Amino acid sequence: MSTGVTGPTRARIPDKTLRTDRWWLYPLTTFVIFSGFVVYATWRAFAGSNYFTEPYLSPFYSPCLGDCVNGASDFGQPFGWWPLSAALIILIFPLGFRMTCYYYRKAYYRAFWMSPPACAVAEPHKAYSGETRLPLILNNIHRWFWYAAVVVALILSWDTVLAFGPAEGESDGIHMGLGTLIFLVNIALIWLYTLSCHSCRHAVGGRLRHFSKHPVRYKLWTWVSRLNGDHAKYAWASLFSVAIADFYVYLLSTGAFDDPRFF
C-alpha cells in the first residue's frame, strides 16, 4: 500500500490547485507575520538589555532568573552564572507551548512547509511522515508545555500586579500608567489563549465517562470548550500583545519617552 503523499488518506488532486480564489493570501500573511515575530523575538531574547524599567518587566524576560539588572528578579537569580541573556533561560517554555500548539501547527505547516498549502491544493512534497519523526514528533509533548505555560502565565499575572506599583521617583502606593494597561490587556489575552488550549480542554474534562457524576469538571469543560472555538483568535492576539508589551518596556528603558501616568 502506498504511503506518504500518495497514501489512501491524502487528497488526490491531479492539478496544482482546484481553487480559483486567492488561497495563497492566508499562508503568505502567516509566513510574513510569523517570520517578523521570530526575527523580533530573537533580537530581543539575545539582547540581554533594556528589559526592565520600574515597575515594568518585559514578558520575554519574566521570570528573570539569570544575571539580571537590579529590581528585575522577584524570584532570585539561581542562574546568575548563566553567561548569555536571561531570556534564553525561560523562553523555551512559552515558545515550546506555541510551537506545539494545535492551531500553530496548522498555520506554520501550511505557511512554511506547504504541507498542505491549503484545502484543494496539491501536495508539493514527494514524501510525508507526519509527526512520527524528528523534529515534528516533539509536537506530541504539547500537553507538558501547557503545564509550563500555566506557570508562566501565573508569573506574568504577578508582573501585572507589580505594574500597578510606583515608577522611579514616585511615592509608594497604587499607581497606573499606560504600561499598566498594556500589561493588563496582555495577561488577559495570554490567559485566554492558554485556557482555550485543546490540552486544557482535555485536562478539565478528559477521560470522564459520566459528566453527570462530575458537575464541576463538566462546567469547566463547557466553559473551556466555548473558549476553544476562538483559540486561533487568541493565539494571534496574544502573539501581538506580548510583543507590544516587550517593545513598550524597551522604549521606556531606552528613554524614548516617559510612561504616561494616570494616577
TrEMBL record:
The chain crosses the membrane at residues 23-43, 81-104, 144-167, 173-193, 234-253. Keywords: Membrane, Transmembrane, Transmembrane helix. This is Succinate dehydrogenase. It comes from the Bacteria.
